Amino acid sequence: MACGAAAIAGRVVLPHDHPESLGERIVAGLLFLALGTGLVLAVRRRLSRELRRVRAVAYATQRVLLRPPPARLEGLSIAASQLSASRGASVGGDLYEVVASPYGVRAVIGDVRGHGLPAIGAVAAVLGSFREAAYDEPELAGVLRRLDRAVQRHLRERARDEHPATGADDPGSPSAEEFVTVLLLQIAPDGGMMALNCGHPWPYRLGPGARPLAAVDPLPPLGLFPLPAELTPYRCRRLLPGEALVLHTDGAADARDAAGRFFGLEAVLRQTAPGPPAAPATVISTVQSALLRHTGGRLTDDVALLVLRNDRPRPPARCGRPHRSPRREPSRQ
Q1: CA separation for the pair 308, 291 (Å, rounded)
Q2: Across the beta sheet with 180-187, what order do the strands follow?
Q3: CA distances from 54 to 47, 88, 123, 145, 312 (A)
Q4: Could you tell me if 39 and 270 are in contact, meaning their C-beta atoms sit under 8 angstroms apart?
Q5: Kind of pairing between the strands at 94-101 and 76-83
Q6: Is 332 a residue whose pLDDT tops 50?
Q7: How many CB atoms lie within 10 A of CB 137?
Q8: Which of 13, 61, 157, 278 has the fewest CB within 10 Å, making it most exposed?
Q9: Rounded Cα–Cα distance for residues 230 and 172 (Å)
Q10: Distance of CA 294 to the CA centre of its chain
Q11: Which residues contact 126 (CB under 8 A, 6 or more apart)?
């Protein structure tokens, strides 16, 4: 910019009838080029600083909304991660949370219809409701009903904002077709598990090998139909010490490569758990690396993974002969 200012000053100071040589014209052109380059670099630097500030604010907001779970909770090792289909975003339409409630460790994983930034409103509604209901509701069915009310309220408010005249009654409203798949899981201190599933993929149990946690049909997703009057949680087999659960969204199971082949999630999980399951963070890193290789880094849907491993000690085994009460001698009359 100093060179450009010098070129302008030279134009002003020199008389108009002063003949310019070719060298002077080249020098003046270079000085004006330097001026333009300086202006462009100054604007770019300013925009870069502003972009860094915006990204820092967005990252802090995303961490509050989809905060990372603790590494250990009530004897469970935990790790979670998400890949967003929206470029530059770390939060999309998938959600997860783990809390230690008075009724056991409770976890939720869900998937909002669609992906990316437009689905964040429904994610916030479900997570906010779960973080309160998980502590307040003694029954897992009560937690699910609270989540359903939160989703219904969010859909009504969104429809009212999009179509103030008709609201949620407008069949053309995008919110009229929005729904949320949800899986609720409760793990007792002894490893007993209960689950309520509304349209979500069942988790995998690791250790050794990998197999689905259940094969029963789930309930419909939240937002499509009212919940049934009776909600009976599915009682799963106990999570033994050393076993792990892999909760995931359908973005992992439905991912395809360029030839249209689906990603083999269960096969990858079997490779990570030929014996006792690896650390939860290792399982997630392995699955994500294999997923990105399979898709070539081009995701069409958000992917969330949540791994819970039971690190509670095994109950001590009884050793020795069983205790017998002393034999009573018959009385002699």
Answers
A1: 20
A2: 94-101, 104-112, 180-187, 193-198, 234-236
A3: 10, 12, 21, 37, 42
A4: no
A5: unpaired
A6: no
A7: 17
A8: 13
A9: 32
A10: 20
A11: 95, 108, 110, 112, 147, 150, 151, 180, 182
**pLDDT reported for residue 329:** 46
Contact 106, 186 (CB under 8 A): yes
Q: Give CA angle at 92 (111, 135), nearest 5°.
A: 60
Strand ranges for 26-92 from DSSP E: 72-73, 76-83
d(C-alpha 170, C-alpha 325), whole Å: 77
CB 202: neighbour CB atoms within 10 A?
A: 18
Residues 6+ apart with CB under 8 A from 74: 100, 104, 105, 189
User: 210-220, pLDDT tens digit by residue?
Assistant: 999 998 999 99
Q: Which two tokens stand for residue 139?
A: 């029954």
E-only strand ranges, 188-269: 193-198, 204-206, 210-212, 234-236, 244-248
* 73 CB-contact burial (10 Å; exposed 0-12 / middle 13-18 / buried 19+): middle
The owner of tokens 């259940």 is 214
Q: In terms of residues, how long is the chain?
A: 333
Please give the structure tokens belonging to residue 145: 């009903």
Please give the structure tokens belonging to residue 299. 């995701």
Q: 154-202 pLDDT, tens per residue?
A: 988 887 877 666 554 554 555 556 899 999 999 999 999 999 999 999 9
> Closest Cα partner for 288 from 255, 262, 258?
255
CA distance 275 to 285: 18
Q: Which amino acid is at 105?
A: V
Is 67 in contact with 59 (CB distance < 8 Å)?
no
Residue 231 has pLDDT above 90, yes or no: yes
pTM over 0.85: no
Asked if pLDDT for residue 285 goes beyond 50, the answer is yes
Beta-strand ranges (E) seen in the chain are: 72-73, 76-83, 94-101, 104-112, 180-187, 193-198, 204-206, 210-212, 234-236, 244-248, 303-310
